[in-house]
């Protein structure tokens, strides 16, 4: 059937209107998606940014010690420093009193730790050792060498930490052995336990947030 000029004009107008409408809907959908993406991202950015800023300023760091197996070590980060967290076994604790004569500072008199860690285990709770994991010689990261009589360290090795850079050695309380380049024990950061599971690094009841 022939289409009159007037009818053809109407159809063209309808097609153009449909085309314009489709373009509008596409643009509107794209704009809505972009706005939605921004809105969705905003809570994430808002929650992430203060955390990073606070961490850079030295905000306390939480660690769930219940996930740490006896005899194992985990590493957390506080003030851009590695924090060694060791869950010591009864055998590891028993070894601490057997080599005081071989240590530079067995009572930690010249070393850095909070008052509650100035004891034989250098800890608030004997089971858990918390140390700043940088060697007190030149700042390398000591390696965990917990097994006694390690072939690399000798038959009299009781277990502890060995610095790979210059050979400083520390026991399972972070106390430095004679003959090590390091002159003082590994440092203990301020920390506390919020409950039986939650270790809080960087805050204690004596000084608050460090």
Supply database-style keywords.
alpha+beta, three-stranded antiparallel sheet, 210 residues, Rieske Iron-sulfur Protein
Mean pLDDT rating:
81
What is the rounded Rg? 31 Å
Helix content: 25-40%
Number of E strands: 11
What would you give as the CATH superfamily of the largest domain?
Rieske [2Fe-2S] iron-sulphur domain
Low-confidence stretches: 1-15, 28-50
Structure description:
The protein has 210 residues and is of the alpha+beta class. It has two domains: 1-57; 61-209, Rieske [2Fe-2S] iron-sulphur domain (Rieske Iron-sulfur Protein). The protein is built from two helices and eleven strands; from the N terminus they run H-E-E-E-H-E-E-E-E-E-E-E-E. The chain has helices at 5-56, 90-94, and strands spanning 61-64, 73-78, 81-87, 128-132, 143-145, 160-162, 169-171, 191-193, 198-201, 203-204, 208-209. The strands form four sheets. The chain has a three-stranded antiparallel sheet, with no helix packed on it. The longest helix has 52 residues, at 5-56. The chain is globular and about 40 Å long. The termini are far apart.
Fold blueprint:
Layout: H1 5-56, E1 61-64, E2 73-78, E3 81-87, H2 90-94, E4 128-132, E5 143-145, E6 160-162, E7 169-171, E8 191-193, E9 198-201, E10 203-204, E11 208-209
């Amino acid at each position: 059937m022939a289409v009159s000029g007037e009818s053809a004009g109407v159809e063209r107008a309808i097609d153009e209107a449909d085309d314009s409408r489709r373009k509008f809907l596409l643009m509107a959908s794209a704009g809505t998606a972009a706005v939605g993406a921004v809105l969705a991202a905003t809570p994430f950015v808002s929650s992430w940014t203060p955390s990073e800023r606070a961490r850079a300023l030295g905000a306390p760091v939480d660690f769930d010690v219940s996930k740490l197996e006896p005899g194992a070590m985990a590493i957390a980060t506080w003030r851009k420093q590695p924090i060694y967290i060791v869950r010591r076994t009864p055998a590891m604790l028993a070894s601490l009193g057997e080599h005081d004569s071989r240590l530079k500072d067995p009572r930690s008199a010249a070393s850095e730790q909070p008052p509650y860690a100035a004891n034989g285990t250098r800890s608030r709770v004997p089971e858990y050792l918390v140390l700043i994991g940088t060697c007190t010689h030149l700042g390398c990261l000591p390696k965990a060498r917990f097994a006694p009589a390690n072939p690399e360290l000798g038959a009299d090795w009781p277990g502890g930490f060995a610095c790979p850079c210059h050979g400083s050695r520390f026991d399972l309380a972070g106390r430095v052995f004679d003959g090590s380049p390091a002159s003082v024990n590994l440092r203990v950061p301020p920390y506390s336990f919020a409950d039986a599971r939650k270790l809080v690094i960087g805050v204690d009841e004596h000084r608050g947030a460090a």
